[in-house]
Design brief:
The chain is α/β, with parallel strands linked by helices. It is about 40% helix and about 15% strand. The chain has a 7-stranded parallel beta sheet, sandwiched between helices. Helix 4 packs parallel to helix 5. InterPro entries: NAD(P)-bd_dom_sf, Sc_DH/Rdtase_CS, SDR_fam. This is SDR family oxidoreductase.
């Protein structure tokens, strides 16, 4: 019987992770490297990226840049392809949440949220897909959210972007899966990251969120590893266009 653990082996693969300087992006980079991938870590904060690159070692490279910069995605594609070759795996973990109430949303806040959370995953994928298509294999993983399907206070711009991510994921799958490029999304629940710091700074609120899950707790960073490796590997060869909620059952209740 073949060793089914090989289904999750990423040896020989190149992964690009945006938002890798902190939070779930950083966790994703560590998980992919532990499974054998060479990882290109992308974010704006060069010092934090360098710390991560040193932690991973020779299998990592760092590219400091703004993935939301309009018109810059072809150049960014060239940068992330330089260290190890074009990525086989692309993780879109960069994100922002302005937490502006609906009546207080500014044009600047709205545009910044949509540019980073929704436009950047499409345009960077569009730039990288030709190399994946040439190899006949690729994995794109977007980051959805509880707010892809739920409305939270102060989340109208963020929720719009994450609702868009769910549909973008399906549309990417329709466009590119025939070329061997599977496109899926992870929908994290409440994890202790910079984006959710305000939630975890309020113990009562954090406890209410934990109680809303089926398992009775909020997420731990390592909870994302298994679902991510599944969607990035041969294990998910017949899975595309899906949003996998990693929320402890929050959306099931």
């Amino acid at each position: 019987m073949s060793d089914r653990r090989a289904l999750f082996d990423l040896s020989g693969k190149v992964a690009c992770v945006t938002g890798a300087s902190s939070g779930l992006g950083r966790q994703a980079a560590l998980a992919l490297a532990s499974a054998g991938a060479r990882v290109v870590c992308v974010a704006r904060r060069a010092a934090a990226l360098e710390d991560l690159r040193r932690q991973i070692g020779p299998a990592a490279a760092a590219v400091a840049g703004d993935v939301a910069k309009a018109g810059g995605h072809k150049a960014l594609c060239a940068e992330v392809s330089a260290p190890f070759g074009p990525p086989d795996i692309l993780i879109h973990a960069a994100g922002v949440n302005t937490r502006q109430a609906a009546d207080e949303v500014t044009p600047e806040g709205w545009e910044a949220t949509l540019a980073l959370n929704l436009s950047a995953p499409f345009y960077l994928s569009q730039a990288i897909v030709p190399a994946m298509r040439a190899k006949g294999w690729g994995r794109i993983v977007n980051f959805a959210s509880l707010q892809s399907s739920r409305a939270f206070p102060g989340g109208i711009a963020y929720g719009a972007s994450k609702g868009g991510i769910a549909q973008l994921t399906r549309a990417m799958a329709e466009a590119w899966s025939k070329d061997g490029i599977n496109c899926n999304a992870l929908g994290p629940g409440f994890f202790p990251t910079e984006l959710t710091q305000a939630v975890f700074d309020d113990p009562d609120r954090a406890a209410r969120n934990a109680a809303q899950t089926c398992v009775g707790r909020n997420g731990r960073m390592e909870d994302i590893d298994g679902p991510l490796l599944f969607l990035c590997s041969e294990a998910s060869s017949f899975v595309t266009g899906q949003v996998l909620m990693v929320d402890g059952g929050y959306t099931a209740k």
